[in-house]
Write a structure and sequence with these properties.
By secondary structure, the protein is α+β, with helices and mostly antiparallel strands. The chain is built from twelve helices and ten strands. The strands form two sheets. An eight-stranded antiparallel β-sheet has the order 2-3-4-5-1-8-10-9, with helices on one face. A two-stranded antiparallel sheet has the order 6-7. The relative contact order is 0.14.
Length: 351
């Protein structure tokens, strides 16, 4: 399952997005629950099965959703689950608890819908670069389509009702995945994160809540969903992200002006390791790619395409690597094959 997906780049890692040298992707997630049904955490087995059955029926009847994949969680292998997490199509929380869950993925992978995660429906849309409005419009298209067949749990005073009260109201989380090596290297990142949190946004790692920061990649998202409109959330995310991009650009410029030899050495050394190493961990690849990505953005390395760096970023993740080569591997074997894959991809660019 998902074997063909592993052979192609993720749509949300396209280089075509706005501000793609700094912002990898934008995500908008809508939490929705079905009226008259208990939230997943309090529902009994039959209640959860009904929600899966309801959504299965919607997918069957909907022209919009006809070309996507709808699969029950019980039919997804452990390797495929990890693959979907790496591809940002499901959350780690989706894997916990009972398996009375399901997943819908649109044909272009821009939209995925988790059924019976924390809420009955978690509808998320991904867009390349900085594009909160575009991601929101995609999510709403599917939310409206499902709403033709199922009634959402909505209160005129509180808005959309959710399993966790902190998601009530709009039920919307908007986030960007942003690359900030300049601010990390100038040691300004803690100050910037503090400024971000004071605006009501939250900063997380590569895979979102509870994850570590890898490869200088940060996820920035809204916390407040009640008492604000969707438009206000989207505008805040875009405005704050634009300010961060400006700070990152200034930090990169300062590095080039004040420590050019050191920065160039760091970038070329990272490229040299990626091009020649025989053993590489996924974390090491992400950190080395961060330096090479910085080199690309500052024209120190001008012969690499950003789409290639994005492809290596994704394929170097453990489950992607195994799916790509069609074989399950232990840690040592993965590290060897990962290094080989990176060398091959870089060689393709040079040929």
């Amino acid at each position: 399952m998902f074997d063909e997906m592993a052979k192609k780049p993720a749509a949300w890692l396209s280089s075509a997005g706005k501000e793609s040298l700094v912002v990898l992707s934008t995500r908008v997630r809508l939490a929705r629950n079905i009226a008259g049904s208990s939230f997943p955490e309090s529902a009994d087995l039959e209640g959860k099965k009904r929600i899966v059955s309801y959504t299965d029926s919607v997918v069957t009847r909907s022209k919009l959703m006809a070309d996507g994949q709808y699969v029950k969680a019980a039919d997804i292998s452990n390797l495929d689950n990890n693959f979907l997490i790496e591809r940002h199509l499901i959350s780690p929380l989706f894997l916990t608890g009972e398996l009375n869950k399901a997943l819908y993925i649109s044909e272009d992978e821009r939209v995925s819908i988790m059924v019976n995660e924390e809420d009955h429906l978690r509808i998320q849309a991904l867009a390349p670069g900085l594009d909160p409005k575009g991601a929101f419009e995609q999510a709403v298209k599917y939310e409206s389509e499902i709403g033709k067949y199922l009634e959402y749990n909505y209160d005129k005073d509180f808005g959309y009702l959710t399993s966790c009260p902190t998601n009530a109201g709009t039920g919307m989380r908007a986030s960007v995945l942003i690359h900030l090596p300049g601010l990390v290297l100038t040691r300004d990142i803690d100050k910037v994160i503090s400024q971000i949190t004071h605006t009501g946004l939250i900063v997380r790692g590569f895979y979102g809540e509870g994850s570590d920061v890898l490869g200088n990649l940060f996820q920035i998202s809204n916390q407040t969903t009640l008492g604000v409109t969707e438009d206000e959330i989207l505008k805040q995310i875009e405005r704050i992200t634009t300010e961060i991009i400006e700070k990152e650009a200034a930090a990169r410029q300062r590095l080039i002006e004040e420590t050019s030899e050191i920065i160039e050495d760091k970038i070329w050394r990272a490229y040299g390791i990626l091009k020649n190493a025989r053993v590489l961990s996924s974390e090491e690849v992400m950190n080395l790619l961060s330096a090479v990505r910085l080199g690309h953005a500052t024209n120190i390395i001008d012969f690499l395409d950003i789409s290639l760096l994005n492809a290596i970023l994704l394929l170097s993740q453990p489950a992607h690597l195994q799916k790509y080569y069609g074989s399950e591997m232990d840690d040592n074997r993965r590290d060897f094959v990962r290094a080989q894959m990176v060398r091959d991809k870089l060689r393709e660019q040079n040929d």
